[in-house]
C-alpha cells in the first residue's frame, strides 16, 4: 500500500501473506461494513492510519496473524476500526507508538512490545499476554498474563500506574542480578495496586544469597497497595531449589524486591580481640535486622538479648560482644526480624 490514501469501504479483505503499508491512509466504512481478516503479516511501515471514515455499521479488523508497526518514530493509528486480536494473533510495536481504538480491551492473543509503545484511550486488558520490552499505555488488568521480555529478560514500562486484579498472572524470570539485562522488571509511573494477582517467578540457580532483584520500580511517592496471592510482605517462597523473600517497600521505599534467601543465617567468621571483646560475622538476608542473644550455658530456656545488627545489601552483618570477657564461656544465637 503506497502513495495516496486507499479507500476500502465495504470491502472484505483476507490477507494470508504480507501487506506492507508504506504510505497513505487505509480508509474503511460505509454499508456493508469493511471487514479485514489478517492471518499473515500486516506491516505498518510508518506513522500511518487505518480509519473508519465513511461511517456505516463499523469497520472490523480481525487479527489472527501479526499486526506490526515496524517504522516511524511517531504514532500509527488503528483508529476507529473494531479490533479483534484472537488465537495466535500478535499486535506488535517495534518503534514509535501503535495506538489502538478507543476503549479497546485485549481478550486474547499477544500484545508485544519490541522497543515501541502500545497505547489507546481507556486501553484495557482482560486476557492474552503482554510481553516484550517497551511501553504500555494501559493500567488496568483484570485477566491475562504480563511477561516482560521474549526468550529472555525484559522491561515493560507503564506510564499511568498499574492495577492488577485477581485473575492476572505476572511471570518474571531471573538469569542474573543485573536489572533488565539479567532479570525482568516492571517500571511504573504512578500508583500501584495488586489485588491477589498471581506471581510466577523462575530463577537461575546461580543467584547468590542476599541478592536483591527490584522487579517493580515505582516512581510514585505512594506505597504499593495490596500484594500478590500468598505472598504478603516479607514472606518466603521457593523457586526451583532456592528460597526468596518478597518486599513491597524496598528500593526507594515503595519498590517491590525479590530477595534471595536461605531461610536462616550462618556464621561466617569469629575473632577475639585483645580487649576481650568477641566479634562474629554472619550471612543472612539483605536488609534484615538480626537480634543477638547470649547464654552462659546450653541447653537453656533463657537467652538474653544483647543487641541487634542489620544486614547490608549483600546480607552480611557483624556484632561485637563487649561483655564477653566477663564469662568463662558464652553461647550465641541470632534470629531475624524482617
Mind explaining what this structure looks like?
The protein is an all-beta fold and about 350 residues long. It has strands spanning about 5, 10-15, 20, 25-30, 35-40, 40-45, 50, 60-65, 65-70, 75-80, 80-85, 90-95, 95-100, 105, 110-120, 125, 130-135, 140, 145-150, 155-160, 160-165, 170-175, 185-190, 190-195, 200-205, 210-220, 225, 235-240, 240-250, 255-260, 265-270, 280-285, 290-295, 305-310, 315-320, 330-335.
Write the layout of secondary structure elements.
Layout: E1 6-7, E2 12-15, E3 18-21, E4 26-28, E5 35-38, E6 41-45, E7 49-52, E8 60-63, E9 66-71, E10 75-78, E11 82-85, E12 90-93, E13 97-99, E14 105-106, E15 110-119, E16 124-125, E17 129-136, E18 140-141, E19 144-148, E20 155-158, E21 162-164, E22 168-174, E23 185-188, E24 192-195, E25 198-203, E26 212-218, E27 225-227, E28 236-239, E29 242-250, E30 255-261, E31 266-272, E32 278-283, E33 289-295, E34 304-310, E35 316-321, E36 331-337
Parallel strand pairs: 1-4, 2-5, 3-6, 4-7, 5-8, 6-9, 7-10, 8-11, 9-12, 10-13, 12-15, 13-15, 14-16, 15-17, 16-18, 17-19, 17-20, 18-21, 19-22, 20-23, 21-24, 22-25, 23-26, 24-27
Antiparallel strand pairs: 26-30, 28-29, 29-30, 31-32, 32-35, 33-34, 33-36
Amino acid at each position: 500500500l503506497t502513495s495516496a490514501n486507499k479507500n476500502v469501504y465495504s470491502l472484505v479483505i483476507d490477507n494470508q501473506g504480507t501487506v506492507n503499508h508504506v504510505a497513505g491512509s487505509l480508509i474503511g466504512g460505509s454499508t456493508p461494513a469493511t471487514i479485514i481478516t489478517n492471518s499473515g503479516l500486516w506491516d505498518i511501515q510508518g506513522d500511518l492510519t487505518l480509519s473508519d471514515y465513511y461511517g456505516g455499521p463499523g469497520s472490523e479488523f480481525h487479527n489472527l496473524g501479526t499486526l506490526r508497526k515496524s517504522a516511524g518514530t511517531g504514532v500509527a493509528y488503528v483508529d476507529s476500526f473494531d479490533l479483534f486480536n484472537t488465537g495466535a494473533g500478535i499486535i506488535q510495536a517495534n518503534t514509535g507508538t501503535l495506538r489502538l481504538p478507543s476503549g479497546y480491551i485485549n481478550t486474547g492473543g499477544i500484545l508485544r512490545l519490541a522497543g515501541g509503545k502500545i497505547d489507546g484511550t481507556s486501553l484495557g486488558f482482560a486476557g492474552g499476554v503482554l510481553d516484550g520490552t517497551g511501553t504500555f499505555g494501559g493500567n488496568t488488568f483484570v485477566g491475562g498474563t504480563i511477561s516482560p521480555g521474549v526468550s529472555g529478560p525484559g522491561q515493560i514500562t507503564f506510564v499511568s500506574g498499574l492495577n492488577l486484579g485477581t485473575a492476572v498472572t505476572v511471570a518474571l524470570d531471573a538469569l542474573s542480578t543485573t536489572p533488565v539485562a539479567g532479570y525482568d522488571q516492571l517500571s511504573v509511573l504512578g500508583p500501584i495496586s495488586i489485588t491477589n494477582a498471581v506471581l510466577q517467578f523462575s530463577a537461575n540457580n546461580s543467584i547468590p544469597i542476599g541478592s536483591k532483584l527490584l522487579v517493580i520500580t515505582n516512581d510514585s511517592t505512594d506505597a504499593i497497595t495490596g500484594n500478590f496471592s500468598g505472598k504478603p510482605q516479607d514472606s518466603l517462597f521457593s523457586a526451583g531449589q532456592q528460597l526468596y523473600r518478597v518486599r513491597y517497600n524496598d528500593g526507594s521505599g515503595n519498590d517491590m524486591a525479590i530477595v534471595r534467601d536461605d531461610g536462616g543465617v550462618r556464621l561466617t567468621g569469629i575473632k577475639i580481640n585483645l580487649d576481650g571483646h568477641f566479634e562474629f560475622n554472619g550471612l543472612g538476608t539483605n536488609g534484615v535486622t538480626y537480634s543477638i542473644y547470649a547464654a552462659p550455658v546450653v541447653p537453656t530456656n533463657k537467652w538474653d538479648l544483647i543487641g541487634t545488627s542489620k544486614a547490608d545489601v549483600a546480607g552480611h552483618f557483624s556484632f561485637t560482644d563487649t561483655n564477653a570477657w566477663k564469662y568463662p564461656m558464652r553461647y550465641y544465637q541470632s534470629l531475624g526480624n524482617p
